[in-house]
Design a protein that fits this description.
about 325 residues, alpha/beta, three-stranded mixed β-sheet, 11 helices, elongated
């Protein structure tokens, strides 16, 4: 009973609780108090009520801090789960569900079964936030992609933080011709003199170093690639690749037309996201490389289209 009471004391914010504890003195305790110091009244067998209170100012501060950290975790990992947040904060599932509902109502997160994800929007997440989102998974995926690329071949790498991670993993290769519409990738690969790098040209997108537009498309049409390694902003349950920018999508479609084999490198956060612009169906992809189990409907589409699935980094149930 004491353990139960202490749990409630430690977990409540703003609420006032009335707890029935047989044989405990009727006193008022604040959050953080050790209720085990209570001593029962001799011979008193009646039920006693303890009123647990906390100042509204302190409670609101703690709640604000927790919500901000929940949002930070979602941005870093792509999603949050009730179980994970309960373990992280040491609060009850009811408290976390209430917090997630409030964050959903305010537009900071979008509720899904068992947790929440970053909200759907017609605008992509900021580049600096995307760079740290699921960073360890992106490294695992990048290594798996690089292992599929032999030396002495032509490769295209498109815009994206995952493809930038792939570029880093390709630095040990030799004899590659890499064409890219991403100035960050060109900068990464420039440190290896055994890799020839061609930048497409085009309109520079200042937010992420991407090159888009007609000049980029025309450059791509002048090549045939052995491999293209691409990413996308969202992967729908039916296997459709989706993105946010019409001009970027037109470049991606040109890449697909000019490539013998296409590797799609996406972390699992893309399974829960939504984006408005269609790139291609999954049957345009030779191999899907990801970090966690692909949703059942999408997995069935991959099997039907002959798209291989490779799980990077860790075992998948």
């Amino acid at each position: 009973m004491f353990d139960f009471a202490r749990s409630i004391i430690n977990n409540c914010y703003l609420e006032v609780f009335f707890i029935t504890l047989a044989g405990i003195s009727a006193e008022t305790y604040t959050i953080g108090d050790d209720i085990s110091t209570c001593t029962p009244r001799r011979g008193d067998k009646s039920q006693i009520f303890c009123k647990i209170t906390k100042s509204e100012k302190d409670a609101q501060l703690a709640l604000t801090i927790r919500k901000s950290e929940i949002i930070a975790i979602a941005r870093r990992e792509g999603k949050v789960t009730v179980d994970g947040l309960v373990e992280h904060f040491g609060v009850t599932p009811q408290t976390i569900r209430r917090n997630l509902t409030e964050l959903s109502e305010s537009g900071d997160l979008e509720r899904v079964h068992g947790g929440a994800i970053l909200p759907s929007t017609t605008v992509n997440i900021a580049y600096n936030e995307r760079r740290i989102l699921n960073q360890s998974s992106k490294v695992d995926i990048a290594r798996a992609c690089a292992q599929m690329i032999p030396n002495d071949c032509a490769v295209f790498l498109n815009i994206g933080t995952t493809t930038e991670a792939v570029a880093t993993e390709l630095l040990t290769h030799e004899g590659l011709l890499v064409v890219t519409n991403n100035v960050n990738i060109a900068s990464i690969l420039s440190t290896n003199r055994h890799i020839d790098v061609v930048v497409t040209g085009g309109q520079l997108r200042h937010t992420d170093g991407g090159l888009i537009g007609e000049i980029a498309r025309n450059t791509i049409h002048g090549f045939r690639f052995d491999y293209a390694i691409i990413s996308c902003s969202a992967l729908r349950q039916n296997g459709d690749l989706m993105d946010f920018d019409l001009q970027e999508v037109s470049v991606s479609k040109a890449i697909l037309r000019q490539s013998e084999r296409v590797l799609l490198a996406v972390d699992s956060s893309k399974f829960d996201r939504k984006a408005p612009v269609f790139i291609a169906a999954i049957d345009s992809i030779s191999t899907l490389i990801t970090d966690k189990k692909v949703p059942e409907d999408c997995r069935a589409c991959c099997e039907q289209s002959g798209t291989d699935i490779v799980y990077a980094g860790r075992e998948v149930d």
